[in-house]
């Protein structure tokens, strides 16, 4: 992908014929339908910039790519040691808040993901061509709290406010060619992919990780082989938490949908909130983009179009339970496939909800059985996570392997090498040996590095050691990550909320999260039983009281698993606390706490906190309340041991 549609030295740009510049911009612009509308904006920009940049030496870029967002900023202007990120609103007489957030987001994207911009002086500028002059807040702009608001006549003076004479000037070529490592949120990724961007454009490509494009190429090779040779194939993709498994799955489903509509590729997930959020995000984006193109599509029609791409796995299951027909879909991606139900859970559900007696298949067996109805070829892609099971009845990877061993021996199996090399996926040696003898090991089907927390790839290791109560290792990791990924603790909720509000810039999302079992946070204003609308919480703006930004409604592990926010406030409950250097596990029933004794239930609760501790992309504050003398359900001992442990690790108190 070209970084910019046009670039030149400022002096050469000023001397170049306007039609020549416009021709280069038009040639690189992919959307021909928008060309006339865009041309008028470019003509105005060229005229204004030639006049306002006449006194400067430097480099100028038009339509510079912002990969994480799948967008391009109008202009980048480099003068001496300053990088000006410039967004034009031609004809506007005011500075809309959305436009200010847009240019600030572009600036933060460069700072966070573009290596050449990490330590550069980045200045966000919004040019509303017909607006009044505005005062410039230099320090707030440099710290990316506010943007420079200027017009077509005052841009020159705005630039002068930040330019200093220095010997430390930016090398244009090095800056432009430096590595870009974007890590989009799953919502941003789904929107960008659905709009036609390639996974290579919105994902990191550094050599430190087996990157997503290699995994995509491997999966496409396997699908094409299945199609060409009429094979039925299943693939198991693994990855550490936050490594991009869901992104890899969305990418394949989208690619195959666009490559050949006869394949009817679909992305399936049992994670209801994730499905709801992604569907709503795609529908909103489709309505918005259609409007920008001068087309009209209703929200309902947008939902109808985008909903075929992402579906709830249980609705898919019920559809083919009802009708014994060959599925429409040839390529099916199952997200979090290890969470599919075991035979006991399915049998109980079928009896209670569907009135079906003696249903004798696990969910993995039934789902393979449905795809096995195809007479020619099909491919199932299972995305497998480890250490995040939080529900009873989840079958794990073993049940998928068991079904293939016993019922579907003619299927071709491709699996990540980690499945047989690690203890996290399969427990029995017998199943590992069966895979080694009967299936194809593929190293490119494992995603090894977390990209959710782009500020620190050691966050997953830190959380693991914290939950293992290894004070020494956790303390060491905390010292290594705290500069890039700030973590704070407090015993005052108001301080926690104030801190994340101050940290967030632009449209960076904040939110309060807690365990669904943390029932006695209610006296403190945190009611985990109050159900939220996940699309409203994750997608709505700062003025909507239902959005995460308002820090009122609480997302639990069930709402947020598979999704993420930039800055989290984790409210730590009394259901999981430290006593005598051991975790204690509790469940609140009626008016008192009850000990959890089953090991599997303990594991689910521990994983709940693992999920909550890994939801933030940029930083988090842990709110650990004080005990109450008048409430027998909230004694000091339920909180103080955990607080002292976090302090011993070295986590700083607000």
Count of DSSP helices? 26
Return the domain count: 3
DSSP E strands, number = 23
Low-confidence stretches: 205-210
Q: Over the alpha carbons, how many angstroms does the gyration radius reach? A: 27 Å
Largest sheet: 8 strands, parallel
Judging from the principal axes of the Cα atoms, what is the shape? globular
Approximate strand percentage: 15-25%
CA-CA gap between termini: 44 Å
Helix proportion range: 40-55%
| Rounded average pLDDT | 88
The helix-and-strand class reads alpha/beta
Description:
With 654 residues, this protein is α/β, with parallel strands linked by helices. The protein has 3 domains: 4-177, Trna Endonuclease, Chain: A, domain 1 (3-Layer(aba) Sandwich), CATH 3.40.1350; 229-411 and 427-436, Rossmann fold, CATH 3.40.50; 459-653, no CATH class. It contains 26 helices and 23 strands. The strands form 4 sheets. Strands 7, 8, 9, 10, 11, 12, 13 and 14 form an 8-stranded parallel sheet that branches. α8 (186-194) runs parallel beside α11 (245-259) and α10 (212-229) packs across α11 (245-259). The longest helix has 21 residues, at 272-292. The radius of gyration is 27 Å and the shape is globular. It starts with a strand and ends with a strand.
